[in-house]
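User: I'm putting together notes for a lab meeting next week and I want to include a structural view of one of the chains we've been expressing. I don't have a solved structure, so I'd like a prediction I can at least talk through. The sequence is below, exactly as it appears in our construct file.
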Amino acid sequence: MKRVIEIIVNEVLLSVTSNRYPYIHEVAQFLAALSTELSGCKFSGHREHVEKNLEEMKDKIKQLGVSGKNKAIGELDLLFDYLENACTEAPKKIVTSKGGNKRKN
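Assistant: Thanks for the context. Below is the predicted structure for the 105-residue chain, given as structure tokens.
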């Protein structure tokens, strides 16, 4: 999600005109600050797959031009919902084969 935030800020929010979206720079500043706070987070998952998807997202935004940026801005609520859920969910416990509990991040 940290990389998604960086792409949205750099490729979308900082490149649109503020007359259409008067508060866009405040949103960009908030997300940039959030990205800085997340800088200590470590990557988990399949890096190659995620990086490929991120590149496809960037390419699609560029391909669609202004309409792609408008679509990305329109879907910021999904990003906010995901971030809220990720930040407020308690770590899930996994039961190991030996009967012990492990925390999953």
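A couple of points you could mention at the meeting. The chain has one domain: 2-104. The longest strand covers residues 92-95.

User: Perfect, that's what I needed.
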